[in-house]
Amino acid sequence: MSARAPVPARRAEDGVFGEFRRRLGSGELGSLPVVLGLILLWAVFEILNSNFLSPRNLSNLSVDIVGTGLIAVGVVFVLLIGEIDLSVGSVSGLAAAAFAVLNVNEGLPEWLALVIAVLLGALIGVVHGFFFARFGVPAFVVTLAGLLAWNGLTLYLLGQSGTINLDDQGLVAKLTSYYFHDIAAAYGLAALGPTAFFLAAYRDRWRRKAAAMPYRPLHEIAVRTGAIAVVAFAAAYVLNRFQGLPLALLIFVVLVALLDVLLRRTPYGRSVYALGGGVEAARRAGVRVAWVRISVLMVSGTMAALGGLFLASRITSVSQPSGSAILLLNALAAAVIGGTSLFGGHGRTWCAVLGILVIESLASGMALLSIQSALQFMITGGVLLAAVVLDSLSRSSQKTRGRA
């Protein structure tokens, strides 16, 4: 009997629109709802106030998203394993307070105080993860205890005055006040994004083709690359019409991209997704469950500390409201609104970017329209509820089709 001939490599013939129909039919909506919602939101605010899409406002918006956005990116890691971190707001406030005390009160160099503050966030995440992974205490309870404890420690460090002002010309202050005025900086970043995407997609296509697996046709990769290029160069054009590329936005985009590679292109990232799909199945597949649990909380704590420093940079001070409950809710909402599933196993770091864009766009638009912040909270709550309902409906649809 002759050996069976190998199955030839084949393209995903349906292309972009075919895949879109398949995803829509199977309930895999991804980030489509939030993208459409963001476009609609910007259109409405621009109609109501023509200053919303002005270069100045969009540039300010690109900096405003960074602090909370970094915290939300860390939250994505925890949500991917089906858990939640309630301490990120308090950890961000504590890191900022620790930096202020070390630098302003104790005279430590800014760079060293900054490193210690970030390491403090990572250490706190490890502590949370240790109790969660080794003692079996639910992450919800561990991080709730952290929320209270770290908030109390922040108040203690700030002392009776409750506020420490930072050097407005210092390293941390420049994180959100420095701009690359040369237009080549913004356009260079805009060119780098689509190029990196194309190379990664082409490499993935080549590897799948060599393994006789379905792969994307070149025209589909070209369409996706072109769409990213249009958005990137439009953003660069707008930023260059004001003050240029903000340093904060550059750091944010680079960190989100690196963490996305970590999640989607490494064995560690696959372990995180596997754990979100089911603890016992992940353990049987050889995933080091305890290590992954500790590591995602460490990432969450580190990103919370970084976010707290950027938030302090924006106002060049640290005060008792730093790390408030509103910050926690905005970070969680950003991750979920952007498309990260509360049930684990689905989401990307870019989800946090989309989510925080929605939240900060609401804040910016309502500020321009002189609408009370109370209404902003109600609308954000409604958007969050809609995102969770969509996530639940998507999972139900996938289970019906045997895809979840």
Automatic annotation (TrEMBL):
Annotated compartments: Cell membrane
Top-level division of the source organism's lineage: Bacteria
Disulfide bond is among the record's keywords: no
Predominant cellular place of this UniProt entry's protein: membrane
InterPro entries the record matches: ABC_transp_permease
Transmembrane segments: 29-49, 61-81, 111-132, 139-158, 178-200, 221-239, 245-263, 290-312, 324-343, 350-369, 375-393
Keyword Transmembrane among UniProt keywords: yes
The entry's keywords: Cell inner membrane, Cell membrane, Membrane, Sugar transport, Transmembrane, Transmembrane helix, Transport
Membrane topology: Multi-pass membrane protein
Known function: Part of the binding-protein-dependent transport system for D-xylose. Probably responsible for the translocation of the substrate across the membrane.
Protein name: Xylose transport system permease protein XylH
Organism: Streptomyces lonegramiae
